[in-house]
Structure formats: structure tokens, C-alpha cells
Amino acid sequence: MFDDTSPASASLVPPLDLSTLLGAIPELVWTAQPDGRVDYVNVRYCRLLQASFEQIQDSGWRQFVHPEDLERTLARRQHSFETGEPYETEYRLRDGQTGTYCWFLARALPVRDTAGQITHWFGISTDIEKQKRREEALRQSQERTHALMASNIIGIIVAEGEEILDANDTFLRMTGYSREDLLQRKMNWVDMTSPEDLDRTRQAHLELARYQSMKPYEKEYVCKDGSYLPVLVGGAILPHDPAQSIYFVLDNSARKELEQRKENFLSMASHELKTPLTTVKMCIQLAKTRLVKQGHHEVAAVLSMTEGSVKLLERLVKELLDGSKIQAGKLEYVQEPVDLEALLSEVAEYVQQVSATHTIVARGTAPCTLIGDKGRLEQVFANLICNAITYSPSATTIEIDRRVSSETVTVSVRDHGVGIPQELHEKIFERFYRISDLSQRAVPGLGMGLYIVAEIVRHHGGMIQVESEVGKGSTFHVTLPLKRLTSGVTFSSEVERERKR
Ligand code: ADP
């Protein structure tokens, strides 16, 4: 083993003071005979290898070189010793203490006498392990970037302002543009965005510039052939040049197509279910009337029981149908003066008739007329009151409060039931969302009611809010503008007739 007091310095070629200096520097210093035999190493060299000078001298150093680097290193040395050219190579040396290999850059120059003959080689090996690690990390990072750019799933573009500066093959393939088009600067995201998505896209770019990040969003690109491609886009600012941003684009067409098929199915299924259900309902009523006339009261009572199930089915099918229409932007509204006071009384009276478990208490008055769709507004309040009853099985009252100001009217439906956790106050208005709490699992429903309610309220220029605490009940507040003419509303006696049917 290496011993600090070993005679490494005893065989010094340089004078003692130079040797002391060479021992102090962090580099490995060595000298060699013209034929390459090592005849001096500094103390740092011995310390690193944990070896004595005797173990290193001549060709002893070779045993400390990484086996994969030895052949190349020897060849390089041999070449220099034969030609007298300066020697430079990188190799790994084994650290005697840890047993690990570290990278060194070895450089050597020949020392010549006055006749030009080489008398010695003077060499220095510098620790480049950190640099090598940085290079390796950089190489790996570049490899990852290349793999990402070459991905055939994600389209990638780099944009500055409105111009697309760079794009990977996947993006070009998705949009039908060629690399030529890109090089000729023919690609511009404004021209390539469908007009409906332009505002959303500009907003996303502003968001990115302001917050350095953006929420992924859906849009449609206009391809070179004019066709539209639904995509999901996410982006990031490039740190080295904040004027430039990189965007990741996922082809969304398969998902969109599936969604469309699902929508078509829901719309078709609800339509197909509606007609036989109406027939069943009519037949039950007819049979019931006849049975009562013929004095078969017991059988008529049994038949009455099926009416409840048919009504539930009817409600679910209607919700499905309305949900599909909302999704397709085809839910139609009529516009008419609505006496809200009368509407609320009618709804409360109707629900009270079918619910014996709860008393509906109306407070305040709302002597106002607003412009809207009476049937749809009835649907809103009937749904909120029915929910209030359904989700407060242990309570006995439902309260309806009304407040009118000069501009708006607010109707609040309060129950003393199970309540809704704070974090779900927004979620319950999403389509198909139902709270999967054990206590609510047995309650029939599709998670469509509040989605439809919110859509109708929004269409009337109003808003709906919920206040609720688990175990203490919920209050839904619906605020509607008074005498507001809703835009884009159809006056359709056809629709009206169809709905009343
Ligand atoms: P559903 O027809 O399935 O009840 P909704 O859209 O009407 O669907 O309601 C969505 C969810 O919100 C319900 O599943 C229920 O968990 C919750 N919810 C709605 N109203 C109330 C209420 N008054 N109290 C407690 N939870 C409610």
C-alpha cells in the first residue's frame, strides 16, 4: 500500500523545490523516459492510486487504468513516443480508496536537448470527472429531447409571436404541412386556428406569457387542406429566449369521435325510450280507469304502484334527452312573460301533492314578472325542491325564500338534509356527477338534474349558487334578472307544443 513517507520523492528528477511544488498541485504530474517508462510521479498521483512510486513506475501505472480505456491510451502514447508529437488523451484511473474510476485528461510534451533529441516526457493528468458528468448529463438530456421531438405521438412546435419557427415531423404530418412550408415561414398559428378557437388560443398565449405556464386546452387546427383537426395543446416558455414558446400538441380526434358517438347514442337512446314509455303510461292510465269502473279496486291499486316507477323512468329519460340537447346546443327555449310568484306556487303545490314526507314552506313574496321560458323555469324549481326532499330523508320541511330587488329576483330552496362537502359545491353541477357517498348510493338518479338546472339558469342570464355543510343541509340560491330579453331564444310554438305533450 501507498505510504506518504515512501521514497516517491527519492527518485525525483526535478530539483527538490520544484518537487515540493509539484506535490502540492491538484493535478497528477509524471515524467517518462523517451521510450515511455515512467520515472517520476508526484505525491498526489500516489495518494490517488493509494500506491507507492515503485508500484506505479515503468509500466506499473497501467494496472490502474480502466480496462476499457487501456488499449486506446497505450496506442496514443506509443504514437507520441514514436513521432514526438504532443500526447493528449482521456482515460479513467482507479481511486485506490473508493475503488471507483475517475476521468482524467492526460497531456504530455517532449523535453528536448540542444540537439533536438527527446530526453524526457513531461506529463500532467487533470481530473475531469465533473466535466464528464456534466457532458453525460447534457448528452442524456439531448437524447431525451431528440426522443421527444421524434415521438410519433406528440406534435411539437416552437413559436415566436404568431409565427411557427420549428415543428417536428409529427406536427407536420398531423396538419399536412411540409418542412418546405415551415422553412419558407408559411406556418402561422393564427391562420391555422379555427375562427371559433381564436379567442381561446390568444388567451392561452397571454396566460403563458404572464404566468410562464398555461392550462392545457382543446382547440381545432385548420390543416393545409382546410380540414379541421381537434387537438389538446399545452405549452411552456423557453427559458433561454422568453419570446419563444414550445407547444405540445396531442391529436384529439379519436377521443372527440368517441365522445360524439357517445352523445349520438345518448340522444338516440333517450329518443327511442321516450315513445314506448309514453305508450306504457297511457295504457296504465286506461287500464286503471277501466278497472276502477269495473270495481276491481285492488288490481287498480297494484297498477297505480307501477305508475311511480314509470314516472321515475320518464324523468330519467327526459333528463338524458335534455342533457344531449344541451351538449349539442339544441335545447330550445321559448320567451314569454313569466309570473314567478304563480310559477313557484304551482310547482310547490305539485311537488307537495306527490310528497307526503315533507312540508314545503314558502316565505316572502316575489311579485314580479320576468321574461323567460315558463316550462324550463318550472323544471329548475321542481328539480331543486325534489332534490331537497330526496337528500333530506330525516327532515320534515323544505323552505322556499324569495327576495326581489329592482333588478333581480332570488329564490332560495333550503333543506335540512345530508348536506354537500365544500369541495364538491362546483362539481355537483357537472354532467353525470353524483356524490358517491354510501348514504346517497340508493337514491336513483343520473347526475343530470343540476347540470340541466344550471344550464337553464345560465340561459336566462342568471346564476345558481349553493351553500351547504355536511349534516346540516343545503340551500340553493337561484338569481334571475328581471325583464331581461334573453338572446338567441326561439319563439317556437312547435317546441312549446312538443314539450307539453
Ligand atoms: P341526481 O339526479 O343524480 O340527484 P343532480 O344533478 O340533481 O343528480 O345532483 C347531483 C348530486 O348532487 C346528487 O347526486 C347529490 O349527491 C347532490 N345533491 C343535489 N342536491 C342535493 C341536496 N339538496 N342535498 C344534498 N346533496 C345534493
Q: Describe the strand arrangement of the main beta sheet, using strand numbers.
A: 2-1-5-4-3
Percent strand: 15-25%
Rough shape? elongated
- Unreliable spans are 1-10, 485-501
Beta strands, count: 17
Question: How many angstroms separate the termini?
Answer: 102 Å
Helix content: 40-55%
What small ligands are held by the chains? adenosine-5'-diphosphate
Major sheet: 5 strands, antiparallel
> What is the alpha-carbon Rg in Å?
41 Å
The CATH first-level class of the largest domain comes to Alpha Beta
Keywords: Kinase, Phosphoprotein, Transferase, Two-component regulatory system
Protein name: histidine kinase
EC number: 2.7.13.3
Catalytic activity: ATP + protein L-histidine = ADP + protein N-phospho-L-histidine
Summarize the SSE layout with pairings.
Blueprint: H1 16-24, E1 28-32, E2 38-41, H2 43-49, H3 53-56, H4 67-83, E3 87-94, E4 101-112, E5 118-127, H5 129-149, E6 154-160, E7 163-167, H6 169-175, H7 179-183, H8 198-211, E8 217-222, E9 228-237, E10 244-251, H9 253-293, H10 297-327, E11 336-339, H11 340-354, E12 359-363, E13 369-372, H12 374-390, E14 397-404, E15 408-414, H13 438-441, H14 449-459, E16 463-469, E17 473-481, H15 493-500
Parallel strand pairs: 12-14
Antiparallel strand pairs: 1-2, 1-5, 3-4, 4-5, 6-7, 6-10, 8-9, 9-10, 11-13, 14-15, 15-17, 16-17
Helix pairs in contact: 9-10, 10-14, 11-12, 12-14
Bound molecules: adenosine-5'-diphosphate.
